[in-house]
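Example S7 (structure tokens).
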């Protein structure tokens, strides 16, 4: 609001580009990082109208920074946007994700200005601060803008696949298959998907009366296809790192520039083009929210647009969540390096998330005696560790349980028939292919319920990952291993000195725990509590678990 007051008062407001902006519509303003844009309209928090030289257009507000410039005598006051230096991928996506959740209020009837902007019918572009038009015209403008951006986006994808990737494949002396996979990810899959999506949009587009177009069903019919963006977004940071390494060699700079000129692309570097799919998937909820705002409830497309908005918000939320998981794999690798006597595969070979952790008493059927262990539940596996008798902050690896082969069963308080022992606060893991059974004893009923819920969350996570094909690439695993070696070398840490981590949170009050319908809520058996206090080992690593205790 302060920005608009300054502009309305005649002050000049200049914004400095934090990174490149590749346009996806006719009236968007392209620029490079470092360019200065004169801000002409900032009434919309997401998209501003600006000018560079003689060219005007829309640009995302999250791509620039502004700070006040001291007023000069006999001149208009000038303002510059002040940056917050954060990595390109994180800044772009996170701001867009936050903005997606902000739904503007419906403008009051008779309002002379639209708070969240609308589209100018003369140029098919989002306009800010213009007089409110009738709902049908506003809806037509939003539809036109969606169609326009989709067509331009297809052009950008084609340029990347044919202008860059195809040419790179011809130069086997400069690129190997692994490098191209890291740099371009699954861009060709995205290109094929988007062409099918746009074809269906065109069929639903009413050229004579755009406001009658019913495009909501197109998003719903293709909702599963949008999950391919998860792989691309998760890979994007690695792509930027690989490109940065290659660009240190002048040959690659000249090669990519030659590709751009040959394909007659706009003057934006290759990393700017590779950012467009990340921008695009984040832009869908913004466009659908705008479309819903100008769609009457009696319109045949209303319920489909509302459902499409929920779907696309969920897609971007899940992409954000999986990106967070990838950011934590370095910590998981570092934790494994701190556990002594590790055997078998690395955690990251199958898992990417710590779901829950805590101490339990454990009885394995052949032996029938209780052992106190520390358990770490990841997706696909449960890792067992033992604390050192003297140094309680040191853990020894004692095995793991493949959660894909086991099912969780509640244990009723009292005499257990399988183990012939009395149990309390207990649950079991039973092998689906054999008679192997493990029984676990929690300290309190609340802790048992937490574990049951955590196991349920683990299965849910595995199913969702399988649905969208989420996995950690070999490149990302190697990067995590390199990071662990670098941190270990810098800090002088050896395998005998694990990082410091806090204990699980105190049990929450009664009534906050629920067990899913497929889990009978029985009483659980006794946990043999150590007289020693909690070691500080758990503190940081347990914070990685997204599961609410």
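Recovered sequence:
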């Amino acid at each position: 609001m302060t920005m608009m007051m300054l502009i309305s008062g005649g002050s000049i407001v200049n914004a400095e580009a934090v990174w490149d902006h590749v346009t996806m519509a006719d009236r968007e303003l392209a620029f490079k990082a470092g360019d200065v844009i004169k801000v002409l309209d900032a009434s919309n928090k997401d998209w501003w109208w600006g000018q560079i030289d003689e060219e005007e257009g829309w640009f995302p507000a999250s791509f620039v920074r502004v700070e006040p410039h001291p007023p000069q005598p006999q001149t208009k006051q000038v303002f510059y946007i002040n940056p917050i230096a954060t990595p390109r991928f994180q800044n772009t996506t996170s701001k867009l994700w936050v903005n997606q959740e902000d739904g503007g209020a419906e403008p009051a009837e008779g309002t002379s200005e639209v708070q969240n902007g609308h589209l100018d019918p003369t140029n098919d572009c989002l306009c800010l601060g213009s007089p409110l038009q009738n709902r049908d015209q506003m809806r037509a403008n939003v539809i036109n803008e969606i169609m326009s951006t989709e067509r331009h986006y297809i052009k950008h994808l084609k340029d990347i696949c044919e202008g860059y990737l195809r040419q790179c494949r011809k130069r086997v002396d400069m690129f190997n298959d692994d490098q191209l996979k890291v740099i371009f990810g699954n861009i060709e899959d995205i290109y094929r998907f988007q062409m099918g999506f746009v074809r269906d949009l065109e069929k639903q587009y009413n050229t004579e009366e755009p406001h009658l177009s019913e495009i909501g069903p197109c998003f719903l019919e293709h909702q599963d296809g949008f999950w391919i963006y998860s792989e691309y977004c998760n890979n994007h940071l690695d792509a930027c790192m690989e490109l940065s390494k290659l660009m240190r060699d002048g040959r690659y700079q000249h090669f990519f520039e030659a590709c751009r000129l040959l394909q007659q692309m706009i003057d934006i570097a290759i990393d700017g083009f590779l950012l467009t799919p990340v921008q695009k998937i984040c832009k869908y909820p913004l466009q659908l929210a705008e479309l819903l705002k100008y769609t009457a409830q009696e319109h045949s497309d209303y319920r489909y647009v509302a459902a499409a908005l929920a779907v696309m918000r969920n897609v971007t939320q899940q992409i954000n969540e999986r990106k967070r998981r990838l950011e934590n794999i370095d910590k998981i690798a570092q934790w494994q390096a701190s556990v002594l006597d590790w055997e078998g595969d690395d955690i990251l070979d199958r898992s990417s998330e710590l779901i829950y952790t805590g101490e339990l008493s454990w009885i394995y059927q052949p032996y029938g005696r209780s052992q106190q262990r520390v358990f770490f539940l990841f997706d696909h596996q449960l890792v067992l560790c033992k604390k050192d008798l003297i140094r309680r902050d040191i853990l020894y690896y004692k095995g793991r349980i493949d959660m894909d082969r086991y099912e969780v069963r509640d244990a009723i308080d009292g005499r257990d028939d399988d183990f012939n022992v009395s149990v309390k606060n207990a649950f079991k893991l039973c092998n689906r292919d054999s008679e192997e059974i493990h029984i676990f004893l929690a300290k309190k009923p609340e802790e048992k319920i937490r574990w049951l819920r955590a196991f349920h969350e683990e299965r849910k996570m595995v199913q969702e990952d399988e649905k969208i094909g989420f996995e950690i690439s070999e490149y990302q695993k190697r990067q995590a291993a390199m990071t662990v070696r670098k941190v270990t070398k810098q800090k002088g840490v050896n395998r005998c000195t694990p990082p410091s981590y806090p204990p699980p949170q105190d049990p929450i009050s009664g009534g906050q725990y629920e067990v899913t319908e497929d889990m009978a809520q029985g009483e659980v058996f006794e946990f043999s509590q150590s007289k020693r206090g909690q070691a500080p080992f758990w503190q940081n690593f347990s914070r990685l678990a997204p599961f609410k205790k």
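Notes on this example. Residues 68-132, 493-539 have pLDDT under 50 and may be disordered.
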